């Protein structure tokens, strides 16, 4: 067994399977494409899930990948263990080989044993290896086949062990593909034992015996009744952890001692002014979390308070916090981004372009975390005397205050820390997180769609095709032979000119004509792709239509032209945003239809009006240039990204061959949508404005063509009105209108001030002799009064005035509000606050009007819903005060 670097292991694995006829497939995004069941991509098979389910077909039946994975939320959550164990990570790479109905157990086992043990490849000593098979359970027989195939490649029988459902049976979900597993384990030696020096046999020591490869044999499909049926085309899904394999081939016990981590740990030590110690848990955490955060942000995830962004924020803040534990208070994680780039760019070249953008996101989060920690620490000291487990967990989750930090603070103050309550609150939150990401159980595609051949899409070249054959008619998910007039169904054709929903562009509308080319058979309201490559036309039937009929597909020309104008404008907008705002801008979503375009993108601040105008000018210059829009078909994805430098759109799923849309030297993107032949066909692009979608994501909306013309006409009508209002011909219409609006706003503010003053005078007048109406309760003056509609600020002023008049006493004022609710304010003079607190008085009073409140000992406020009970609530004040003085 020779030493191999992590990069050499990755490359050798992929090259081995290429020699066995496998297609090398690039890692998919960490954000799963169109899969609500997953928080993050967490296994190599995720990108092939639809292939295994029969929803998607590819032009190869064998594949091999090195898939980037994250397990840090939802069902798979290793976050709390990272740094304190040898093999837990948030981000890792999963090497895998896959067969889609091609080879099965015999070949998978032979390939695995050859790669692992052959001197030509990894050359791991056979006497250090063990394998496991499924022992049989729950009606599934023992995997005798796998055992025999392991024996055939030379594994001694005494090194083959049986395992149960938990370890050696895999299922995609409650229903769907499933099957037994076979795993390969490596003996790290007695020095790696969980209990030092204790020599336990396999498989009794998880620390010593490390699983390096799992072979999944998909041979069954579980239906809704729980019955297992043999798959007609059994498949193979395997996973070999790169980090674990590197530890084996580099002769180290911990993954953190491999070359995949040691450069990052060294850089973390430099940035935190700490000794370079691979055993330092905080340095391990910083290295791991920097890898994870860099890749997540690169794939479009941004820190947020929910979902994927929330998990990313926790990962970043955990890394920052461990830097602080090492004494580094200044931002440092952004520098770790570049360290990750330098170590990983050969396998993931996209990191080169994304590093600056990622570093900006990380730096912004570091700055925000510093502010949050300051607030959190202040709140901790305020809450310390009454710090429950729930409150402590709130500070931990919301402000990132470390558990040990809070425990130390409680200890120093001589206060018991409610650790049990904290752990209960944490467990409850983890349960909520798991529940929120259960997603829908993704089932196999309906056999109606799965068994159909792909639809030949001819809509790039023409808007109508003749003689399309009706392959299937689907109503409510069930195939039928004939549809009658008035029915709404889906029709699948062998070829079509209709574009189907994809890449943010909506599907075409139009008509299906009979084969005599004259009469309309059905109106098409859209098209989708329920199975990759199969187009389902959503239609309202006008004449009977049957499976086997021939029809003409005719797309609504105006609809298609309007849509493609907007789509081409989206590409120009993307390029214009990057030119003006910076190369960190990256698409985060889009919607293109015949009316307008919507474009979401990564950016950290609002766009100034001047910047929007500059972007609008730049992209309209490209329109006026009438640059040709060139589409390149079937380009290998590596060529598209690395040679053409085409932008890949966030959230899109790309195959090995892609379509490149090029607009001169201005824009090059991967795109399967429909486009104009030249930019001049767009007419003009009018930006309607921009706004925030979420943290770090902005949205611009725009219109083109006739839609833009209508917008200009509307603006012109407003300008004409402004001209009528213009006090001077020297002002532009826009300035005149702004001046008039500003003048009106000033008049309105003045009227509101006058109304407020009138209300205050009226209220003050009505209570001018109120001090004389105060009653004495156990030696304390108490004044409870109802006043006219005043806001809370005015009530506070009045309460202060009346307290001054009383000299010593309690003042309670209640006022009905314009929205039908009630405002109550209690004031207690300073000399009485040791005996009477305003907050204790207001509680029972507010309760009577259906509300609650609180505040300082000398001033408290409350709101209520029931204005009808205000008089009786105020009448009860003397009794409430008396009870508190008892």
Automatic annotation (TrEMBL):
| Named cofactor requirement(s) | Zn(2+)
Kindly state which keywords UniProt assigns to this record, in alphabetical order. Aminoacyl-tRNA synthetase, ATP-binding, Coiled coil, Cytoplasm, Ligase, Metal-binding, Nucleotide-binding, Protein biosynthesis, RNA-binding, tRNA-binding, Zinc
Q: How is the cofactor bound?
A: Binds 1 zinc ion per subunit.
Which cellular compartments is it found in?
Cytoplasm
E.C. numbers:
6.1.1.7
Which InterPro entries does the entry link to? aa-tRNA-synth_II/BPL/LPL (IPR045864), Ala-tRNA-lgiase_IIc (IPR002318), Ala-tRNA-ligase_IIc_anticod-bd (IPR018162), Ala-tRNA-synth_IIc_core (IPR018165), Ala-tRNA-synth_IIc_N (IPR018164), Ala-tRNA_ligase (IPR050058), Ala_tRNA_ligase_euk/bac (IPR023033), DHHA1_dom (IPR003156)
Major localization class: cytoplasm
List the coiled-coil residues.
Answer: 734-761
* GO process annotations (BP): alanyl-tRNA aminoacylation; negative regulation of DNA-templated transcription
Enumerate the Pfam families for this protein.
DHHA1 (PF02272), tRNA-synt_2c (PF01411), tRNA_SAD (PF07973)
Q: Where is this region: Disordered?
A: 848-867
Q: Quickly give the catalysed reaction.
A: tRNA(Ala) + L-alanine + ATP = L-alanyl-tRNA(Ala) + AMP + diphosphate
Q: Name one GO molecular function term.
A: ATP binding
Where along the chain is Zn(2+) bound? 567, 571, 671, 675
Task: Indicate the enzyme's highest-level EC class.
Answer: ligase
**Which PROSITE patterns does the entry mention?**
AA_TRNA_LIGASE_II_ALA
Q: Which residues form the Alanyl-transfer RNA synthetases family profile domain?
A: 4-714
Q: Which GO terms describe its cellular component?
A: cytosol
**What HAMAP family does the database record attribute to this sequence?**
Ala_tRNA_synth_B (MF_00036_B)
Main role? Catalyzes the attachment of alanine to tRNA(Ala) in a two-step reaction: alanine is first activated by ATP to form Ala-AMP and then transferred to the acceptor end of tRNA(Ala). Also edits incorrectly charged Ser-tRNA(Ala) and Gly-tRNA(Ala) via its editing domain.
- What family is this? Belongs to the class-II aminoacyl-tRNA synthetase family.
What protein name is recorded for this chain? Alanine--tRNA ligase
Q: What is the lineage of its organism?
A: Bacteria, Pseudomonadati, Acidobacteriota, Terriglobia, Terriglobales
């Amino acid at each position: 067994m020779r030493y191999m670097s992590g990069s050499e292991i990755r490359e050798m694995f992929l090259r081995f399977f290429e020699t066995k006829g496998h297609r090398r497939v690039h890692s998919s995004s960490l954000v799963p494409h169109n899969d609500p069941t997953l928080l993050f991509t967490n296994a190599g098979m995720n990108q092939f899930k639809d292939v295994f389910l029969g929803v998607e077909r590819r032009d190869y039946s064998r594949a091999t990948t090195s898939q980037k994975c994250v397990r840090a939320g939802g069902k798979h959550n290793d976050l709390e263990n990272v740094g304190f164990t040898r093999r837990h990570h948030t981000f890792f790479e999963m090497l895998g080989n896959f067969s889609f109905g091609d080879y099965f157990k015999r070949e998978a086992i032979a390939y695995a044993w050859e790669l692992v043990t052959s001197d030509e490849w990894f050359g791991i000593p056979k006497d250090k290896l063990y394998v496991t098979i499924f022992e049989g359970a729950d009606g599934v027989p023992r995997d005798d086949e796998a055992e025999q195939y392991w024996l055939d490649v030379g594994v001694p029988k005494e090194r083959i062990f049986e395992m149960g459902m938990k370890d050696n049976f895999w299922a995609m979900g409650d229903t769907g593909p499933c099957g037994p597993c076979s795993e390969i384990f490596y003996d790290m030696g007695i020095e790696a034992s969980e209990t030092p020096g204790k020599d336990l046999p396999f498989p009794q020591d998880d620390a010593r015996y490390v699983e390096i490869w799992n072979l999944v044999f998909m041979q069954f499909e579980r239906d809704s009744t729980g019955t297992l049926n043999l798959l007609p085309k059994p498949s193979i899904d395997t996973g070999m952890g790169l980090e674990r394999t590197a530890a084996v081939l580099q002769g180290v016990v911990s993954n953190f001692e491999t070359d995949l981590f040691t450069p990052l740990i060294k850089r973390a030590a430099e940035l935190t002014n700490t000794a370079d110690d691979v055993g330092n848990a905080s340095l391990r955490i910083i290295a791991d979390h920097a890898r994870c955060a860099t890749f997540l942000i690169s794939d479009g995830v941004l820190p947020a308070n929910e979902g994927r962004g929330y998990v990313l924020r926790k990962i970043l803040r955990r890394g920052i916090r461990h830097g602080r534990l090492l004494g580094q208070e200044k931002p440092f994680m952004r520098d770790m981004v570049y360290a990750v780039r330098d170590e990983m760019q050969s396998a993931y070249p996209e990191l080169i372009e994304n590093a600056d953008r990622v570093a900006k996101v990380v730096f912004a989060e570091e700055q925000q975390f510093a502010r949050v920690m300051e607030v959190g620490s202040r709140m901790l000291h305020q809450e310390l005397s009454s710090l429950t487990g729930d409150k402590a967990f709130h500070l931990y989750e919301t402000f990132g205050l470390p558990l040990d930090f809070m425990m130390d603070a409680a200890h120093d103050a001589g206060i018991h820390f409610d650790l049990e309550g904290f752990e209960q609150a944490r467990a409850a939150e983890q349960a909520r997180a798991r529940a929120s990401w259960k997603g829908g159980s993704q089932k196999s595609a309906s056999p109606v769609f799965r068994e159909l051949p792909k639809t030949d899409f001819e809509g790039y070249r023409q808007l109508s095709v003749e003689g399309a054959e009706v392959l299937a008619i689907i109503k409510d998910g069930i195939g039928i032979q004939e549809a009658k007039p008035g029915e709404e169904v889906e029709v699948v054709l062998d070829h079509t000119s209709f574009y189907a929903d994809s890449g943010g562009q909506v599907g075409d509308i139009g008509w299906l004509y009979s084969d005599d080319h004259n009469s309309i058979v059905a109106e098409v309201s859209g098209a989708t792709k329920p199975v990759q490559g199969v187009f389902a036309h959503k239609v309202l039937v006008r004449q009977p239509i049957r499976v086997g009929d021939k029809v003409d597909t005719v797309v609504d020309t105006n609809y298609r032209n309007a849509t493609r104008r907007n789509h081409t404008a989206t590409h120009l907008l993307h390029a214009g945003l990057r030119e003006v705002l910076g190369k960190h801008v990256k698409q985060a979503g889009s919607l293109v239809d015949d009316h307008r375009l919507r474009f979401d993108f990564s950016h950290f601040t609002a766009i100034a009006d001047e910047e929007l105008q500059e972007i609008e000018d730049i992209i309209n210059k490209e329109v006026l240039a009438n640059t040709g829009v060139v589409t390149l078909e079937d380009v290998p994805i590596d060529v598209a990204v690395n040679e053409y430098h085409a932008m890949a759109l966030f959230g899109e799923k790309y195959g090995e061959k892609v379509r490149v849309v090029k607009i001169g030297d201005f824009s090059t993107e991967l795109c399967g949508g429909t486009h104009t032949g030249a930019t001049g066909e767009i007419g003009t692009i009018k930006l309607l404005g921009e706004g925030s979608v979420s943290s770090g994501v902005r949205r611009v909306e725009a219109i083109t063509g006739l839609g833009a013309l209508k917008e200009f006409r509307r603006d012109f009508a407003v300008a004409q009105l402004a001209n009528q209002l213009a006090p001077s011909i020297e002002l532009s219409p826009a300035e005149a209108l702004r001046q008039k609006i500003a003048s009106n706003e000033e008049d309105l503010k003045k009227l509101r001030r006058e109304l407020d003053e009138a209300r205050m005078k009226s209220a003050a007048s009505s209570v001018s002799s109120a001090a004389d109406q105060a009653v004495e309760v156990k030696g304390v003056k108490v004044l409870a009064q109802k006043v006219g509609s005043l806001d809370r600020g005015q009530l506070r002023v009045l309460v202060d005035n009346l307290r001054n008049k009383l000299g010593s006493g309690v003042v309670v004022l209640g006022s009905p509000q314009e929205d039908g609710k009630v405002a109550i304010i209690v004031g207690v003079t300073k000399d009485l606050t040791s005996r009477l607190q305003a907050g204790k008085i207001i509680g029972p009073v507010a309760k009577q009007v259906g509300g609650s409140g609180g505040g300082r000992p000398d001033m408290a406020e409350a709101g209520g819903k029931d204005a009808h009970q205000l008089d009786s609530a105020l009448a009860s004040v003397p009794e409430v005060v008396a009870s508190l003085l008892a």
